[in-house]
Amino acid sequence: MQTIRTTPSRAAKRVHYDEAIIHPILDEALFCTVSTVIDGQPFALPTAHARKADKLYIHGSVGSHFIRAIENGAPVCVSVMLTDGLVLAKSAFNHSVNYRSVIIFAQAEKVTNEAEKMEALALITDHLIPGRWADLRPTTDSEMRKTTVLAFPLTEASAKVRTGGPNDDPEDRDLPTWAGVLPLKTVSLTPEPASYCPDIPLPDYLQAD
Amino acid sequence: MQTIRTTPSRAAKRVHYDEAIIHPILDEALFCTVSTVIDGQPFALPTAHARKADKLYIHGSVGSHFIRAIENGAPVCVSVMLTDGLVLAKSAFNHSVNYRSVIIFAQAEKVTNEAEKMEALALITDHLIPGRWADLRPTTDSEMRKTTVLAFPLTEASAKVRTGGPNDDPEDRDLPTWAGVLPLKTVSLTPEPASYCPDIPLPDYLQAD
User: Fold this and answer.
1) For the whole model, what pTM was predicted?
2) Chain A residue closest to B201 (CA)?
3) Residue A134 near chain B (CB below 8 Å)
4) Is the separation of the CB atoms in B132 and B126 below 8 Å?
5) N or C, which terminus of chain B has less Cβ within 10 Å?
């Protein structure tokens, strides 16, 4: 939704309020940065997340000051960025980045319903490693009590997307400098088994594509 | 430096104040998230950066509201995270992430000295693409006037690092679930030349290792 806070001062043509653009970015990004204000000072925490419908879930320790501050109503800005490539122009000024980012302004809603809380933890686990949750022993009551789950409505969210090649000034285009895009990608490498169980077969969901 | 703001409420054993740990994380991360407070509300902006000695530089448009707010003294928290791997334990609760993160609390210092400003832009460019700056036409006076460069002292900075395998509860270690680390890495793919100069040879600094 476009609000004063989600209206950028720069590059307005790159901004989107459509959930068909916002949701896939949140789903592809493994981590977000949660920023808040405590006693007038900014604090930021990178953390895992998961989205379901129009809610973003995070979790944390019940003992975390940061989690308690946002649980108690401190205003939050969640940011996510996927970096798809470095954009190399013929001038430094026209260098850019191909990215897909999302910003969410929200206040946390503490998830107290046990079923929703358990589902959110499953979503966060399976967001990082699809298929993992079903392979795990059940979460205990004690573990649940030690964990806070917070939901953020995606009402005031916006995406910003840049794609394509460099936009060089017309008078620079014939300079002999290479210009183009250096694509970036995050990949997973060969899984490394824990020292105490080196011989358990790798599950299907961790096999390379 | 350890201050109230850089003292965590959780996982204190993972925190470091040593620049020999902080600096390489800032140097390896291509992007940071700059969080600030405007009218009591948190705002966050992912952006490129570069470090020299004990300063972190960012740049932005002179027309950006965000840049102007922090240029005018809004308090800032810069966060950086490198994700080295997903840590898979036998319980959801003991899942973790291998990461190296840095948090900096600071106020921006506007770089007004033209030589330092130009050097900062070169550092930011070469931080993303080492060797690029020397290949570019000189930055013009007009481009310099349109660009704000801000420096953050690294005085109040801390790093948080997790490495190694999962820490399962003793009673979980013999469960038949695979446990270990799924390493993550960001890689660059084949460079894609701009449509208007497809035939310029790829410079050495963009050749694959």
Assistant:
1) 0.95
2) A178
3) no
4) yes
5) C
